[in-house]
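User: Can you predict the 3D structure of Phosphoesterase? Sequence below.
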Amino acid sequence: MNTGLPHTSVAVFTRRISREEQSSYIEVPFDMPERVEEIQVTYRVESFGAPGAVIDLGVRDSRRVRGWSGGARAGFRIGRETATPGYIPGDLDPGSWAVLHNAYKVPQEGCEVTITVEFRHLGGRWLRGDLHTHSVHSDGTYTLEENAAIMEELGCDFIAMTDHNAVSQNLAYPRNTKVVMIPGMEFTTNFGHSNLLGVADPLDDFRVRHQADVNERLRMARERGARIVLNHPHCDYCPWEWDFAVDHDWVEVWNGPWSARNERTLQWWQEQLAGGRRLVAIGGSDTHRPDPMVKHAMPCTWVYAESRTAEGILDGIGKGHVGISFAPEGPFLELTCGEGAYRAGDLVPAGQSTGALRVEAAGLLPGDLVRWISNQGLEKELCLEGEGDLEQSQAALQLPSEAWEGRSFYRVEVWRSFKEAERVLLAALTNPIYRTLGAGRGNEGDG
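Assistant: Sure. Here are the predicted structure tokens for Phosphoesterase:
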């Protein structure tokens, strides 16, 4: 499982600066490779003879200066969506770039600048975050900066800003946080809530009177590029009472602490899957303010994404490459099939040999219940015993290829006894891997 940083490469350059170059601008060129997600640049200056060289810092791309910090910083980063203050985020197009220096003060003997450029390349990895949060831009008490800081402290990668019927949060979020801020809005009506993710201004007017109005609002959001989520659809207080046939992409099966409303939504989702729908399940904390139970990234949504950007994360969710855990520390589950050829969300095509199913897991504990579920319902349940019982743990975390016979999908849940709640609750789940029924019996003996 890949839950770390993307592949990186590093280039180091040195440039000697003579006294005669004082007060001049100097370029140290470098080539931007293909498929770079972020660059981090640091530099240090070594004075020869008398100390006190002052060399300013900036950067240009192939078209323009992308940032300048003078002598205020020892480095900077530029990503596709965020950057160090003073630098412009955006596309990192391949081609000729250069680190810029202003030789403001150079000793008589000169100085030498050493520049390190680290390239973080696009590539699949698991990211974790929260897809349902609130702030002072609606009825929450957290500022956007506080939300971002909490998520950074938790080690999370992204947060969706989903204030009730408001979009001002999408124009005011901090640009210098390392957390990806996904624009959003919780379309909040008297008969149900829906998150609209991925665009800063999905609606001109949230007010609705009847189903036709709801349909029109969702049409507008879709036209503007929003991803549509049915939020806590079986909640006791604000369930989805509009037509379930409305346009939507995903369903929030896990909202806040695990409860009966989530149980009902989980059962509804299973019915949708068993009926042939490929509906992606996500989670969100719905946090508004400090609370002993409702906390950021509880639950935590894990997404396998090709880039650490809002677009990359939403694309990963759209592919169903999603898991959910009760907290950022896990347990984390990665469901694969056929030696990793397919992962959660993927469809094994008709006639394709399926291979064995396997879960790579982190953060499981003795006593955890591992459940394999298909379109036929619960297929297998095994309680993990001691940590050293490797053979039993492996048996719980895999199914042979023969288990696919007559099955259109498999997914996995982990249930755990929580002392705080004094009951067994859901600790993690995966989205399904799908298989086209009628694909034949060509999977026997694989894996």
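The chain has two domains: 8-121, 125-435. Residues 439-447 have pLDDT under 50 and may be disordered.
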